[in-house]
Amino acid sequence: MTTVTKTKKTFSIADLILGLIVVAGVVLGIIRLATGLGPTTNLNSSYPWGMWIAFDVFTIPFSAVAFTLAAVVHIFNQEKYHGLSRFTVLMGFLGYLMVVLVLVMDIGRWDQFYSVLMPWRWNLHSFMFEVAMSITLYFGVLILEMLTIVFERSGSPIVDWLKRLIVLIAGVGVLLSCVHQGSMGAVFVILRHRVEPLWWTPILPVLFLTSALFTGLSVAIFLGVVTWKALGKPAPMKLLSNIARWVVIIQAIYLVLKLGDLLLAGEFGLIFSSGQFSLLFLAELIIGVIVPLVIFGSQAGKSEGGLVAGAVCTVVGILINRWSISWFALNPPPPPAHGVPMTYSPHWMEWGITIAAVAAAILFYSLAVRFIPVFRDTVTGKAH
Amino acid sequence: MKAVLVDLVRCMGCRACQVACKAWNDNPGEVTLCLGCYDNPPDFSGDTWSLIQFNEVETGEELHWVFTKRQCMHCEHPACVSACPVSALEKLPDGPVVYHAQKCIGCRYCMLACPFDVPRVNWGEVLPEIKKCTFCADRQLHGMEPACVKACPTDALVYGEREELLAEARLRIQKRPDKYANHIYGEKEAGGTSWLYLSPVPFKELGFPELDEEPVPELSETLAVYGTPSMLVGVAAALGGLYWFTKRRAEGMAKQGKEE
To answer: Is position B158 within any domain?
Structure first.
C-alpha cells in the first residue's frame, strides 16, 4: 500500500492485555484436553451442559452477522453494503472459529470428533447432527469468503475464481445458516421434560431463526458504528439506519410469534407465574425486543448513540434468551428420593476459557481491521 | 422383543441384582455416605448402572416399604438413540439399547434427552464414555438372561418375551387387585419400554416420571424428517427468487439511468 492513512498501525496496551488473556486461555485449553472434564468443569449428571454449550448457543446467532449481510449484498443485490459486509464476514468467521474451539473443549471425546464426518454414522433424526454438520459446512463457506476478502487484490487466479463463484458460495452459506439457526432451536424440542415451559414450544426452530436474523443485523449495525469510529471516520449512517428499519420489522414479527405462541398454547399466564423465570423472560423481551423497537423505530435510531444502544440491547436480550434455554431454564431432573440435589455454577477454568474466547475474537477483529489493508481501506474510502 | 418384568411386590430389597450387575460388568464399588436410609448409592453413576431405591409410601392406613430396582428402561423409541448425532447409541431388535464407545463424540445430548435420567459419564476420565445398563446384551447374545435377573432369589425379576410378560403382569393384577396398583409401568409410557413394572403403590409415589404414550423423540423426529428438507427447499427457492427479482430490478434501474 502506498497510501498513507492516519489510522494507528501500532500495538496498544489493550492488545497486550487481550493477548495475555488469549495465551492463558490456550494454556487452560491444553489442561482441559489433557485432564478431562472432571477437574476443569463443574458439570455433573444433573447438569451435563454448562457454560461452554451456552457460549456456543449464544455465539451462533451473534455470528449470524455474516450471513445476514451476505444475503443483503449477494442475494438482494444491494451492492452499497459490500464494504460493510467485509467486516461482518470477518466477525462471523471469528465467531464461528470460537464456537468450534469452545465446542472442542466441551465435547468429552474430542479425540473422536471425526465421527461426525463419517456418513455411515450420521443420524439424520438428530438435530445435534444437523447442528454439527451445518457448523462444519458453514465454517468452510466462511473460510472461502474470508480468503476472497483478504486476498481480494492479490490477483491470484484462485481468488478470481472464488470471486466469480461468490454469489453461489454466499447463497450456500445463507441457505446453510437459515437451516442451522433453526436446527439450533430444534435441539431443544426433544428436551421438553427439561426446558422450562415458558420457553419450550414446537416453534423453537422458527423463533431461533427469526431472532438470529435480527441479532445478526444488530451486530452489523454495532460493528458499523464502532469500527468506523475507532478508525476515526463518521459511521455510514444511511446504510446502518436502513438496517435498523429491517431489525424493527423482524423484531416485531418475533414478538408476535413469541407471544402469539404462548397465547395459542394457553400458557400466556406463565409469563407472570413462573417466579424467577418470569423475570428472565421479561428481561429478555423488554431489553432485547421492546427497547430496541422503541429506539430503532424513533428518531433515536438515526443517531450513532441510538444505533449502538439499540444494537447492544438486542444482543444482551438474545444472550439472556439463549442462556435461558441452554442453561438457566434447562432444568435438572428431579433428584432421587434420598440423593442430594446437585447444583451447577461454572468452574473458574470454564470462565477462563470462555473469557479467553471472547478476548480472542475482539483481539483478532481489531488486529485484522488495523493491519489488513482491505479492511482499513474500506473505512477510509480507498476500497470499494 | 425381549423384556423384563419387575414385580416390586415380590422384591425384598436384597440387592443381589445390584451386586450381580457390578460383578458381570466389572464395575468397582463406590465410596458411599450414610444418608439416613438404605439407598446405597442413591443414584446411578458411571460405575453403578443398576440399583435399589427404598421408598416408604403411605396409602391410606397402610405403610408400604417399596424396594425399587432401577436401571435403563430400554425404551422402544429411545430418546437417547434419536438424539445421538453419530449413532453411538443403538436399539437392538431384541430390545437392548446399547452404546458404541468408538463412535461417541461426548456431546452428552443423550443424558439430557433421556426422560428417565439414566445415561451417566465418569467425569474423572480424560476421555469419558457414556455408561448405563446394557440389558446384558452380551449375555443375551449367548442365550443367557441378564445378570440381575439371574441373581434375583424371589423372581421379582423375570426375563422373557415382552407380550408374554405383559399377559403375566395383567394376570397378577387381576388375581390380587388388593396387592397391586392397577398399572403396568412401561407398557405404554413414552411409547413403551422393554422393562415393565408392577407396584403395590402408584408409580408416582416411587418417583417414576408421568409420561404419556407419545414416544419422547416423536415430535423432534417429525421435524427432522419433514421440517428440515422443506425448509431447505423453501429457503433455497425463496433465495433464488429474490436474487432473480432484485438482480432484474437493479439491471432495470441501471438501464433507465443510462437512457436518461
So the answer is: yes
